[in-house]
Amino acid sequence: MLPFHGSNEPADCSDAPIELAPDVWWVGRRLPDDRFQCHAYYLRNGNNGVLIDPGSPLTIETTLAKVARIDDLSAIRYLVCHHCDPDIAAALPMLSERLSRPDIQVVTEWRAGDGASAPLRPPF
Predict the structure, then answer these.
(1) Statement: residue 74 has pLDDT above 80
(2) Please, are residues 41 and 29 in contact by the beta-carbon 8 Å criterion?
(3) Model confidence over 12-55: pLDDT tens digits?
(4) Which of 58, 79, 87, 113 could bridge across to 36 with cysteines, CB 3.0–4.6 Å?
């Protein structure tokens, strides 16, 4: 694991995922001067991987590249979005094109259905 320094940022926010605990990784991307930072996490769980708060179109490619360094993208079974704000969930339409697993599921809070602005193709 990488140490944190005085600014509360990891010492290395590069393209490398940061292991926080066994099989728990920070896979986000810090956007300089952006007040709304999404912190994406990946939980490696065999063939039932969990991507938490995948992010926006501005960050998703970095997030997926980091996950791919940990696990095959086909291991992602659950996409957890704590809420439907753009910094958390705007990449879902892109993920519906990139992830082809038929049993993938989006897990979110009950109001997110009202906030979805872009249709997702099945299996989402």
Answers:
(1) yes
(2) no
(3) 456 799 999 999 999 998 777 766 677 899 999 999 999 999 98
(4) 87
Is the pLDDT confidence value at 88 over 80? Answer: yes
Residues 46, 82: Cα–Cα separation, whole Å: 23
pTM for the whole structure: 0.78
Sequence-distant (≥ 6) Cβ neighbours of residue 36 within 8 angstroms: 85, 87
Distance CA 77, CA 99 (A): 9
| Residues 80 and 42: beta-carbon distance below 8 Å | no
Residues 109, 1: Cα–Cα separation, whole Å = 31
Q: 27: closest CA among 57, 74, 60? A: 60
Q: Are 105 and 77 in contact (CB under 8 A)?
A: yes
The pairing of beta strand 49-52 with beta strand 41-43: antiparallel
Contact criterion met (CB below 8 Å) for 80 and 50: yes
